[in-house]
Design a protein that fits this description.
By secondary structure, the chain is mainly β. The chain contains no helices and 10 strands. The strands form 2 sheets. Strands 1-2-3-6-7-8-9-10 form an 8-stranded antiparallel beta barrel. The N and C termini lie close together (about 10 Å). The relative contact order is 0.23.
Length: about 180
């Protein structure tokens, strides 16, 4: 079992993925891992994740303009989205790869996909409350003698409604996270 919390103070504008900037993202996560292959040099595990609390905060107070790139060109509108949206969700499709799985310091890489339901439309007012998520990243686990571990890592996290809303600008976040892991 793993628990961690992460924060992104920066939302980059991507080339076709996340078009919305000026947002902060805070995520908590509870993960459960099932080992698929436990080799000496590389190990793989399936990961299911529950996000009990996800927060997206608009950094600029008051109304701002949000611009979208569409098939007919670029258009802008007043962004009257809420200052803070809170949500919860799941990422049932996850995979984690460990390098040096038997060592005291274990580098890892991971990827996952799922969804989050927010209290209001995210990332702008004409989006949807339900959004899909895709993430990838990596980090280090520092294993203690009892098998428990402290974790530090980075994950690129993308939020999008998959074009089910009136607009689908997407939101990207570079999240730094810390946590702990308890082995059974």
């Amino acid at each position: 079992f793993e628990a961690h919390a992460g924060y992104s103070w920066y939302s980059p504008r991507g080339g076709g993925w996340g078009m919305i900037t000026d947002r902060r993202v805070f995520l908590t996560a509870l993960r459960r891992e099932w080992i698929i292959n436990d080799g000496r040099r590389v190990a793989w595990s399936y990961v299911g994740e529950w996000t009990p609390i996800a927060v997206v905060q608009r950094m600029r107070p008051g109304e701002t303009y949000t611009c979208h790139d569409g098939p007919t060109g670029r258009w802008c509108e007043r962004d009257r989205s809420v200052q803070m949206a809170i949500g919860t969700g799941m990422s049932p499709f996850g995979l984690k790869m460990y390098l040096n799985p038997l060592g005291k310091t274990r580098p890892f890489a991971h990827a996952a996909a799922g969804g989050i339901l927010f209290s209001s439309p995210v990332p702008v007012q004409n989006s949807t409350r339900l959004n899909f998520t895709v993430e990838y990243g990596g980090g280090l686990e520092f294993v203690r003698a009892n098998g428990h571990a402290a974790i530090v890592g980075f994950r690129f996290h993308h939020i999008s409604n998959g074009s089910f809303g009136n607009v689908n600008p997407g939101l990207d976040a570079n999240i730094i996270f810390v946590g702990f892991k308890k082995r059974r």
